[in-house]
Amino acid sequence: GQQLNQSPQSMFIQEGEDVSMNCTSSSIFNTWLWYKQDPGEGPVLLIALYKAGELTSNGRLTAQFGITRKDSFLNISASIPSDVGIYFCAGQPFTQFYFGTGTSLTVIP
Amino acid sequence: DAMVIQNPRYQVTQFGKPVTLSCSQTLNHNVMYWYQQKSSQAPKLLFHYYDKDFNNEADTPDNFQSRRPNTSFCFLDIRSPGLGDAAMYLCATSRESGTGGPNNEQFFGPGTRLTVL
Lengths: 109, 117
What we know:
The complex is a heterodimer of chains A (109) and B (117).
Chain A: E1 4-7, E2 10-14, E3 19-25, E4 31-37, E5 44-49, E6 55-58, E7 61-65, E8 71-76, E9 85-92, E10 98-99, E11 103-108
Parallel strand pairs in A: 2-11
Antiparallel strand pairs in A: 1-3, 3-8, 4-5, 4-9, 6-7, 7-8, 9-10, 9-11
Chain B: E1 4-7, E2 10-13, E3 19-25, E4 31-37, E5 44-50, E6 53-56, E7 64-67, E8 73-78, E9 87-94, E10 107-108, E11 112-116
Parallel strand pairs in B: 2-11
Antiparallel strand pairs in B: 1-3, 3-8, 4-5, 4-9, 5-6, 7-8, 9-10, 9-11
């Protein structure tokens, strides 16, 4: 199956700091999705990207679809305690979505 | 609000005792998916339905079966649960599959945490 490398694996940051994470693929994707998952809950869709180079924001979150179509980036500005959770990227080459391994974010008040 | 609902949220079963997990959706989406997620891992697709058409992933064990009696409901049957089947089971839906764009976005339910004793 497709390999999606997501980094970093975990982050510990101070409240108010900005966060960056990314996903890379060995194949070209047509769609990138970013999800947040709280403990014991299902993933919640944050941002969807459909075109190479696309930059999309959702509040303090900004995501970009890489020009090569093999990567995507998620930035969170001015982190707050409720940003804690696991962030997953998901990429779609054709029909199936493949998920990254997740980035665990801890925000220290 | 339109949503994906999973019941129960927590399920305990015994080794080898069949168990059924359920998912329902009010989004009227064509596609329903079942994922297995083990601790600290990414969700792994087991199978999906496009309407009534069943699509099994090649590496999904035969121990896992699914039924979709109508648009709104989908069931995951584990015929003989083993200890290795303990996981979070996630149901997701999308309006379409493979067409690109917003219709492919997947929306997840809250999951069912399965414990096998």
